[in-house]
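Subject line: Sequence and fold of a protein, written as C-alpha coordinates
Body of memo: The sequence and its C-alpha coordinates, given next.
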Amino acid sequence: MKEEKLLYEGKGKKIFQISHSKDQVLLFFKDDLTAYQAKKKGAFENKGEICRKISSLIFKYLEKNGIETHWIEDVSSRQMRCFKTEMIPLEVVIRNRLAGSTAKRLGLKEGQRIEEALLEFYYKRDDLDDPFVSEEQIKQLGLIKNKSLIKDIKEKSFLINKHLQVFFKRANLELVDFKMEFGLFKNKILLADEMSPDSCRIWEEKTGERLDKDRFRRNWGQVKESYQKIECLLFKTWKELSDFKK
Protein backbone atom coordinates (compact mmCIF):
# COMPACT_ATOMS: atom_id res chain seq x y z
CA MET A 1 0.00 0.00 0.00
CA LYS A 2 2.96 2.35 0.65
CA GLU A 3 3.70 2.34 -3.09
CA GLU A 4 0.22 3.49 -4.03
CA LYS A 5 -0.80 7.14 -4.34
CA LEU A 6 -3.30 8.48 -1.80
CA LEU A 7 -6.22 9.99 -3.72
CA TYR A 8 -8.56 10.84 -0.88
CA GLU A 9 -8.96 10.45 2.85
CA GLY A 10 -12.44 10.57 4.32
CA LYS A 11 -13.85 10.11 7.80
CA GLY A 12 -13.72 6.32 7.67
CA LYS A 13 -11.56 5.34 4.70
CA LYS A 14 -8.52 6.13 2.61
CA ILE A 15 -8.57 5.62 -1.15
CA PHE A 16 -5.36 4.79 -3.01
CA GLN A 17 -4.73 4.66 -6.76
CA ILE A 18 -3.45 1.24 -7.82
CA SER A 19 -0.22 1.87 -9.68
CA HIS A 20 -0.63 -0.87 -12.29
CA SER A 21 -4.25 -0.08 -13.16
CA LYS A 22 -5.72 3.38 -13.74
CA ASP A 23 -9.24 1.92 -13.49
CA GLN A 24 -8.86 0.45 -9.99
CA VAL A 25 -8.36 1.74 -6.46
CA LEU A 26 -7.70 0.34 -2.99
CA LEU A 27 -10.10 1.19 -0.19
CA PHE A 28 -8.47 1.13 3.24
CA PHE A 29 -10.87 1.09 6.21
CA LYS A 30 -9.77 3.11 9.25
CA ASP A 31 -10.62 2.58 12.92
CA ASP A 32 -12.04 6.11 13.20
CA LEU A 33 -15.66 6.56 14.24
CA THR A 34 -17.46 9.85 13.62
CA ALA A 35 -20.98 11.24 13.90
CA TYR A 36 -22.83 14.50 13.22
CA GLN A 37 -20.56 15.44 10.29
CA ALA A 38 -17.44 14.53 12.31
CA LYS A 39 -18.38 16.91 15.14
CA LYS A 40 -18.23 13.84 17.39
CA LYS A 41 -15.18 11.63 17.03
CA GLY A 42 -14.00 8.32 18.42
CA ALA A 43 -12.50 4.99 17.43
CA PHE A 44 -12.22 1.39 18.49
CA GLU A 45 -9.67 -1.30 17.77
CA ASN A 46 -10.21 -3.34 14.58
CA LYS A 47 -13.21 -1.29 13.49
CA GLY A 48 -11.71 -1.02 10.00
CA GLU A 49 -11.46 -4.79 9.72
CA ILE A 50 -15.04 -5.31 10.86
CA CYS A 51 -16.50 -2.70 8.48
CA ARG A 52 -14.45 -4.07 5.57
CA LYS A 53 -15.73 -7.60 6.25
CA ILE A 54 -19.36 -6.50 6.50
CA SER A 55 -19.10 -4.33 3.36
CA SER A 56 -17.50 -7.19 1.42
CA LEU A 57 -20.19 -9.65 2.50
CA ILE A 58 -22.95 -7.27 1.41
CA PHE A 59 -21.28 -6.48 -1.92
CA LYS A 60 -20.73 -10.18 -2.64
CA TYR A 61 -24.34 -10.99 -1.76
CA LEU A 62 -25.63 -8.25 -4.05
CA GLU A 63 -23.32 -9.32 -6.87
CA LYS A 64 -24.71 -12.87 -6.56
CA ASN A 65 -28.16 -11.34 -7.02
CA GLY A 66 -27.30 -9.36 -10.13
CA ILE A 67 -26.50 -5.98 -8.58
CA GLU A 68 -23.30 -4.48 -9.98
CA THR A 69 -20.96 -2.91 -7.40
CA HIS A 70 -17.49 -1.42 -7.41
CA TRP A 71 -16.10 -4.32 -5.33
CA ILE A 72 -13.58 -6.59 -7.09
CA GLU A 73 -11.85 -8.52 -4.33
CA ASP A 74 -10.58 -8.38 -0.76
CA VAL A 75 -6.87 -7.60 -0.55
CA SER A 76 -6.26 -7.73 3.21
CA SER A 77 -8.17 -7.51 6.46
CA ARG A 78 -8.64 -3.75 5.95
CA GLN A 79 -8.44 -3.34 2.18
CA MET A 80 -10.59 -4.11 -0.83
CA ARG A 81 -9.83 -3.58 -4.50
CA CYS A 82 -12.52 -1.71 -6.38
CA PHE A 83 -13.29 -0.14 -9.73
CA LYS A 84 -12.47 3.56 -9.82
CA THR A 85 -15.78 5.29 -10.36
CA GLU A 86 -16.84 8.86 -11.05
CA MET A 87 -18.86 9.42 -7.89
CA ILE A 88 -22.33 10.92 -8.15
CA PRO A 89 -22.59 13.70 -5.52
CA LEU A 90 -25.71 12.30 -3.89
CA GLU A 91 -26.34 10.15 -0.86
CA VAL A 92 -29.33 7.89 -1.39
CA VAL A 93 -31.11 6.85 1.78
CA ILE A 94 -33.70 4.08 1.92
CA ARG A 95 -35.90 3.96 5.01
CA ASN A 96 -37.95 0.89 5.94
CA ARG A 97 -38.90 2.47 9.25
CA LEU A 98 -38.82 6.11 10.30
CA ALA A 99 -35.77 6.80 12.42
CA GLY A 100 -33.06 9.36 12.94
CA SER A 101 -33.28 12.76 11.26
CA THR A 102 -36.43 12.05 9.26
CA ALA A 103 -38.45 11.01 12.31
CA LYS A 104 -37.17 14.04 14.21
CA ARG A 105 -37.81 16.44 11.33
CA LEU A 106 -41.40 15.24 10.92
CA GLY A 107 -42.11 14.98 14.64
CA LEU A 108 -42.90 11.28 14.39
CA LYS A 109 -42.13 8.40 16.72
CA GLU A 110 -38.78 6.80 15.99
CA GLY A 111 -39.10 3.26 14.70
CA GLN A 112 -42.55 3.85 13.21
CA ARG A 113 -43.26 1.41 10.40
CA ILE A 114 -44.19 2.72 6.97
CA GLU A 115 -46.20 0.96 4.27
CA GLU A 116 -43.54 1.23 1.56
CA ALA A 117 -39.83 1.93 1.61
CA LEU A 118 -39.08 5.66 1.52
CA LEU A 119 -36.25 6.99 -0.65
CA GLU A 120 -34.50 10.27 0.10
CA PHE A 121 -31.70 12.17 -1.63
CA TYR A 122 -29.03 14.22 0.13
CA TYR A 123 -26.48 16.47 -1.58
CA LYS A 124 -22.95 15.37 -0.69
CA ARG A 125 -21.43 18.59 0.68
CA ASP A 126 -19.76 18.33 4.07
CA ASP A 127 -19.59 22.12 4.35
CA LEU A 128 -23.40 22.23 4.04
CA ASP A 129 -23.99 19.17 6.30
CA ASP A 130 -25.25 17.09 3.34
CA PRO A 131 -28.65 18.80 2.93
CA PHE A 132 -31.82 17.02 1.84
CA VAL A 133 -32.70 17.68 -1.82
CA SER A 134 -35.75 16.84 -3.89
CA GLU A 135 -35.67 15.26 -7.35
CA GLU A 136 -36.72 18.60 -8.83
CA GLN A 137 -33.85 20.38 -7.08
CA ILE A 138 -31.38 17.78 -8.35
CA LYS A 139 -32.60 18.37 -11.92
CA GLN A 140 -32.94 22.16 -11.78
CA LEU A 141 -29.61 22.77 -10.03
CA GLY A 142 -27.72 20.35 -12.27
CA LEU A 143 -26.37 18.26 -9.40
CA ILE A 144 -25.95 15.37 -11.84
CA LYS A 145 -25.08 15.72 -15.51
CA ASN A 146 -27.52 13.17 -16.90
CA LYS A 147 -31.03 13.68 -15.52
CA SER A 148 -32.11 10.19 -16.61
CA LEU A 149 -29.72 8.78 -13.98
CA ILE A 150 -32.19 9.69 -11.24
CA LYS A 151 -34.68 7.10 -12.46
CA ASP A 152 -31.97 4.45 -12.80
CA ILE A 153 -30.62 5.18 -9.31
CA LYS A 154 -34.09 4.95 -7.78
CA GLU A 155 -34.85 1.63 -9.46
CA LYS A 156 -31.49 0.19 -8.44
CA SER A 157 -31.87 1.47 -4.87
CA PHE A 158 -35.27 -0.15 -4.33
CA LEU A 159 -33.96 -3.42 -5.81
CA ILE A 160 -30.95 -3.34 -3.48
CA ASN A 161 -33.30 -2.78 -0.55
CA LYS A 162 -35.42 -5.74 -1.58
CA HIS A 163 -32.43 -8.08 -1.70
CA LEU A 164 -30.85 -6.78 1.51
CA GLN A 165 -34.03 -7.11 3.51
CA VAL A 166 -34.07 -10.83 2.63
CA PHE A 167 -30.38 -11.23 3.55
CA PHE A 168 -30.70 -9.42 6.88
CA LYS A 169 -33.91 -11.18 7.84
CA ARG A 170 -32.20 -14.54 7.35
CA ALA A 171 -29.56 -13.28 9.78
CA ASN A 172 -32.28 -12.36 12.33
CA LEU A 173 -31.57 -8.68 11.75
CA GLU A 174 -33.77 -5.83 10.57
CA LEU A 175 -32.41 -3.29 8.12
CA VAL A 176 -34.17 -0.15 9.34
CA ASP A 177 -32.49 2.30 6.95
CA PHE A 178 -29.24 2.68 5.05
CA LYS A 179 -27.22 5.12 2.98
CA MET A 180 -25.83 4.34 -0.46
CA GLU A 181 -23.51 6.11 -2.86
CA PHE A 182 -23.23 5.38 -6.56
CA GLY A 183 -20.54 5.96 -9.16
CA LEU A 184 -20.19 5.69 -12.92
CA PHE A 185 -17.71 3.25 -14.43
CA LYS A 186 -17.62 2.90 -18.21
CA ASN A 187 -21.15 4.29 -18.43
CA LYS A 188 -22.52 1.82 -15.88
CA ILE A 189 -23.96 2.76 -12.50
CA LEU A 190 -22.19 0.87 -9.72
CA LEU A 191 -23.01 0.75 -6.03
CA ALA A 192 -19.88 2.21 -4.42
CA ASP A 193 -18.40 3.43 -1.13
CA GLU A 194 -19.22 1.01 1.75
CA MET A 195 -22.14 -0.81 3.34
CA SER A 196 -21.55 -1.18 7.07
CA PRO A 197 -23.01 -0.26 10.48
CA ASP A 198 -21.47 3.16 9.87
CA SER A 199 -23.99 3.76 7.08
CA CYS A 200 -26.93 1.54 8.11
CA ARG A 201 -29.37 1.32 10.99
CA ILE A 202 -29.51 -2.35 11.96
CA TRP A 203 -31.69 -3.72 14.76
CA GLU A 204 -31.89 -7.21 16.14
CA GLU A 205 -35.14 -8.57 14.77
CA LYS A 206 -36.56 -10.25 17.88
CA THR A 207 -35.43 -7.84 20.60
CA GLY A 208 -35.21 -4.53 18.74
CA GLU A 209 -31.71 -4.03 20.14
CA ARG A 210 -29.86 -1.40 18.13
CA LEU A 211 -26.52 -2.59 16.82
CA ASP A 212 -25.31 0.24 14.59
CA LYS A 213 -23.57 3.60 14.90
CA ASP A 214 -26.48 5.01 16.91
CA ARG A 215 -24.82 3.34 19.88
CA PHE A 216 -21.93 5.77 19.40
CA ARG A 217 -24.08 8.76 18.48
CA ARG A 218 -26.20 8.39 21.63
CA ASN A 219 -23.53 7.21 24.05
CA TRP A 220 -25.12 3.80 24.63
CA GLY A 221 -21.81 1.93 24.74
CA GLN A 222 -21.05 -1.60 23.48
CA VAL A 223 -20.27 -0.22 20.02
CA LYS A 224 -17.54 -2.70 19.11
CA GLU A 225 -19.53 -5.64 20.44
CA SER A 226 -22.57 -4.62 18.38
CA TYR A 227 -20.54 -4.27 15.18
CA GLN A 228 -18.99 -7.68 15.85
CA LYS A 229 -22.44 -9.20 16.34
CA ILE A 230 -23.60 -7.93 12.96
CA GLU A 231 -20.46 -9.29 11.32
CA CYS A 232 -20.92 -12.70 12.94
CA LEU A 233 -24.60 -13.02 12.00
CA LEU A 234 -24.12 -11.90 8.40
CA PHE A 235 -21.09 -14.14 7.91
CA LYS A 236 -22.98 -17.13 9.28
CA THR A 237 -25.88 -16.41 6.93
CA TRP A 238 -23.56 -15.91 3.94
CA LYS A 239 -21.85 -19.23 4.65
CA GLU A 240 -25.20 -21.03 4.97
CA LEU A 241 -26.37 -19.57 1.65
CA SER A 242 -23.07 -20.45 -0.05
CA ASP A 243 -23.14 -24.02 1.24
CA PHE A 244 -26.75 -24.39 0.16
CA LYS A 245 -25.96 -23.28 -3.41
CA LYS A 246 -23.19 -25.85 -3.64
The mean pLDDT is 94.
